[in-house]
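Help needed: design a sequence for this.
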């Protein structure tokens, strides 16, 4: 390569001129990285909360189903007693 194609002195001078801009960019990148870390931590916390809420939801649904079954059994026993009482009343 010729010296005209790649003038290292000019590149070094240009890079020195961008020193302040590159420091600002580095600072902005650090701030962005911190915000991204905070966002990832918040996402992880929300995922844990979501998992806990889903488990609680499943437990409540199972409890509701068990209570519904007990209610149906109690209703069936009461209806059977009513039928027996009516039969006793008619037979007497």
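Sure. Designed sequence:
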């Amino acid at each position: 390569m010729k010296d005209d194609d790649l003038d290292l002195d000019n590149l070094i001078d240009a890079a020195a001129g961008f020193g302040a801009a590159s420091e600002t960019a580095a600072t902005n990148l650090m701030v962005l990285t911190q915000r991204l870390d905070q966002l990832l931590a918040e996402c992880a916390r929300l995922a844990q909360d979501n998992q806990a809420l889903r488990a609680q939801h499943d437990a409540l649904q199972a409890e509701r189903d068990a209570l519904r079954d007990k209610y149906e059994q109690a209703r069936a026993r009461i209806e059977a007693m009513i039928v027996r009482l009516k039969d006793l009343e008619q037979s007497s």
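The radius of gyration is 38 Å.
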